[in-house]
């Protein structure tokens, strides 16, 4: 029946959003279907029906997190419509967003998924780290003026910018020392301007 597919799809979306909120609060490392299902008002059987298995649910959660990540990058790209904003202003905008405390649950989930993708390259985590690097490098490239972006040095500069952002973010997540990590990012921005 046509209405059943729509209902299953709507229910899948509803449970995915609830599971995503749960994952933001609890992470994915020890994700167990029973506690998750109880917390979001479902059952393990329904989750298995809608997502196939636990790996299918994890893949759906990673895709959902990536949707938020891509929205951040799209916002950065839109800010640069017309003339590209430049690499240093892009890094400054990204760091300003990353440093906001309310974004830490998403960023912790990202860090967990990134690390798991490196140590468990198959299964649900496959390709997450690589995809996120490609996404961020693409967004940073879009912010560079064409002569800089397309020159020999352009890829190196955006790779360095991404490495600084990622390193500072991991340090911030580990220590909550926003002042020190922001100072480090600002020092790097001064070098990018130079």
From TrEMBL:
Taxonomic lineage of the native organism: Bacteria, Bacillati, Actinomycetota, Actinomycetes, Kitasatosporales
Residue intervals of the HTH tetR-type domain: 9-69
Stored InterPro entries: Homeodomain-like_sf, HTH_TetR
DNA-binding region per Swiss-Prot/TrEMBL record: 32-51
Name by which UniProt lists this protein: TetR/AcrR family transcriptional regulator
Gene3D superfamilies given in the database record: Tetracycline Repressor, domain 2
Lipid biosynthesis is among the record's keywords: no
Keyword line: DNA-binding
Entry keyword DNA-binding: yes
One protein family per Pfam: TetR_N
């Amino acid at each position: 029946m046509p209405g059943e597919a729509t209902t299953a799809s709507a229910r899948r979306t509803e449970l995915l959003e609830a599971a995503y909120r749960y994952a933001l609060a609890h992470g994915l490392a020890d994700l167990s279907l029973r506690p998750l299902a109880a917390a979001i008002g479902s059952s393990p059987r329904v989750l298995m029906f809608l997502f196939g298995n636990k790996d299918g649910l994890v893949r759906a959660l990673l895709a959902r997190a990536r949707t938020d990540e891509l929205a951040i990058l799209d916002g950065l790209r839109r800010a640069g419509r017309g003339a590209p904003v430049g690499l240093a202003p892009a890094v400054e905008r990204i760091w300003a967003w990353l440093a906001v405390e309310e974004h830490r649950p998403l960023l912790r989930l990202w860090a967990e998924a990134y690390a798991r993708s490196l140590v468990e390259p198959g299964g649900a985590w496959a390709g997450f780290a690589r995809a996120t690097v490609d996404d961020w490098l693409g967004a940073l490239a879009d912010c560079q003026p064409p002569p800089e972006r397309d020159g020999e040095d352009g890829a190196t500069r955006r790779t360095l910018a991404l490495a600084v952002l990622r390193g500072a973010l991991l340090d911030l997540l580990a220590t909550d020392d926003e002042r020190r990590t922001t100072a480090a990012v600002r020092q790097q921005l001064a070098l990018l301007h130079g």
